[in-house]
Amino acid sequence: MNILLICPEFPDTFWSFKHALKFTGQKALVPPLGLLTIAAMLPPEWPKRLVDMNVRKFTEEDLAWADYAFISGMIVQRESALRAISQCKKAGIKVVAGGPLFTCEYETFKEVDHFVLNEAEVTLPPFLADLEDGHARPVYKTLEFADLTKTPIPLWELADLKQYNVMSTQFSRGCPFDCEFCNVTALLGHRTRHKTRDQIIAELDNLYCDHRWRGGIFFVDDNLIGDKRYVKNELLPALIEWQKDKGEIPFNTQVSIKFADDEELMQMMHEAGFDMVFVGIETPDENSLAECGKKQNLNRDLIKNVQDIQRAGLQVQGGFIIGFDNDTPSIFQQQADFIQKTGIVNATVGLLQAWPNTRLYERLRMEGRLLEGMSGDNADGTTNIVPIMGLKTLREGYLSLLHHIYSPANYYQRVKTFLKNYKSPKVKMPFKFGRIPMFFRSVYFLGFRGKERVQYWKLLLWTLVHRPDLLPLAVMFAIQGYHFRKVCEVYVSQGACPSDSLA
Fold first, then answer.
1. Structure pTM?
2. Which of 227, 234, 363, 501 is the most buried (most CB within 10 A)?
3. Residues of the chain with pLDDT under 70
4. Are residues 416 and 475 located together in one domain of the fold?
């Protein structure tokens, strides 16, 4: 049975990094880890083919070849998924769908033949057994959570790895916290489940040795330190040992702000090769943090926490949310000031959205404050919530905030603030000939043609004088800033953004 694995296209968002990838010559940020893991769970005798629509479109030959199409995605990929499903059905291919998008909205996809929902380690085996017997049901779902010690190594050989900027792996699922707006616990539960250290090392060896991957690797866990004891006693020592004869593989991941409370943990992460962490900061407003149940962020000096992580040798990518019930129009300036002061270069600010099956969704449904439709991209200036602040005030203030923090002057100043505070990473960015074209593209597009050319050259000269070891990082930030500004232009064109009104 020929299986076509389809990853729908991501729209132009902060997280796609599409405009930055034009400088590197790659087509997508990360490969579809979920689909490649599903592929490893399918019968080995079935021929398989991956079509990541972020890398290439599927062809008539793909459609003629396939017997079944397996499609997976997130809510933000909905429109592309609908188009792909329609094409498959027109070609007479049966469609099997799973992943967060379909787990949340499967009733709306009328053309899908079979839904394999929740965690595939639990729901895929009974579907395959029923398929073999000739009586597969339309829907397979479960309340059971998977045992990750049985999750196989992804079939990386199905992907054209040179088209991606970083690889990905997953150590754990679940999160011990209970943030009202978050759908992670709704999908994956509160109990942290994880793979063994040997599993992770086997996956890394597979990428490094079998596929000769030499770039970065993203641990996609929503909170890598959910089981901090195992991470400190087992995972990190194994990663430190693994890096000894590699020395060039940078890691990044996602953690809670409680990471900053454990200096030993931060140093071990640095020693293991982690150079960046995403932290859900959400807001500097204590009332809004209390409102959404973000207890782990309360009663602490968030600015100091961020700077402590930076001084430990890890960049902080910050997630921020606007639109809590306790937010007033002053929140836009508060967020801008916090982001600038901390030197969080990659600050992804989004409007609050109510995801299905979350506590926030149920509360607002009871209050009659839910709007139809949800884009899944919380940074596109849309929301499915009727905000207390008023939708017009919220949207105009939000777009003004984006304009402010990603204007060249403020963005490059933030990069400089960060570089002043940052401890050099354990794993240095290795010299590669492929980075030479990237550098010259940045010189041409940003240093000569770009509106930011003055800030670009000032940053490079300052870095050469004060932090020459971080020059590649400074260039990378300049390229990422270009991407963020291009995405902001899209959002602004859609929302008639007012001029920057923030100080």
1. 0.94
2. 227
3. 427-434, 491-503
4. no
